[in-house]
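Entry type: protein chain
Record version: 2
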Amino acid sequence: MKQKKYMMSEGLAFSEEKDMKRLSDMASKGWVLDSFAVMGYKLRKAEPRKLIYSIDYHDVGEESLAEYTEMFEAAGWERVCSSQGMHIFSAEPGTSPIYSDQSTMREKYKRSEKDVRNVTCTFSFLTLLSITLHYVTGLSNWIPLFFLIVTIPFLVTYAATKARTLGKWGKSV
């Protein structure tokens, strides 16, 4: 039976680099990334390895996944896992970074921002609708409260994601 371990994420919108560094540290201790998990990552026991990790945000259909992966493999990166348009790659230390300049880094975050924005807008709308229905029809207090509790983390995540797409001088690129 393979040993598994869970590592909680600090939130990719807030501490992506820190998460990737922690995954590297865990690999050096013999716990390599296996897959995404709810609010974190599943690790599996393996031989200790020196690895670096990087994440890419790109909505790739199943038919294009092999071609997408080959592009990274040609640069020395191996796809470890994917989920909901997020793909984590690993490589040996010293491999050229996936993103080496500010403009391509901002493009990466712009791709993730769109998905976060759509979910945030949907939950914000449902929150406002449920509050309106509460006052107009007497809808239970619990429904607007539920939507508010769900919406707040998305709003904070969207704000952090949006901040990452802003250029050096605060202008969106």
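Comment: Residues 4-91 form one domain.
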